[in-house]
Amino acid sequence: MQAKQLPPDQPSADGDHVDLVRRQWATEMPELDTTPLAVIARLGRLRTYLDQGLDALFGEYGLTRQSWDVLACLRRKGKPYQLTPTELSRAVMRTSGTITHTLYSLEHAGLIQRIPSEADGRSLPVQLTAAGIELVERVAPRHLDNERELLAALAPDEQSQLAALLRTLLVALESQPPPEPDRRRRPVTWRG
Length: 192
What we know:
By secondary structure, the protein is mostly helical. It is built from 7 helices and 3 strands; from the N terminus they run H-H-H-E-H-H-E-E-H-H.
């Protein structure tokens, strides 16, 4: 007995959006190998769902994902909880402009302070304030509980397998020089 073929615009009961997209491509361009979509598109869609879940928690504390990343990076660095803006930019993989804006907001909120550098007069390292340390230590346990909830569809051994596979991919990508962020929006141009 042959399996029932779903129309290309109907999701299956046990499939996801990526299954639908791959089925549509298979109908329109059967010669196109969409295997990478099974991973890359799912990672992209998962990021959207995960960001929404994380942003909801951070929003309860007046934080964004970027501001949390900076605060957490400073706290886990250890005493004196201090890094330069360039070190933060690299650590949290954000552009220098995004870091500058985030640092301004965090400083205005009293969560970080800029410290004059004795080694380099041009650099102003940032440091967590007592309020910043207290906030990170209050949010961190809730953040990890939130992440556990976001991963609850996977059994612990599945989470371990996924973590190992993602680590393998990330190690390979991190062994290459990091791409420079493109700060300009470029219009779509067709050169066909």
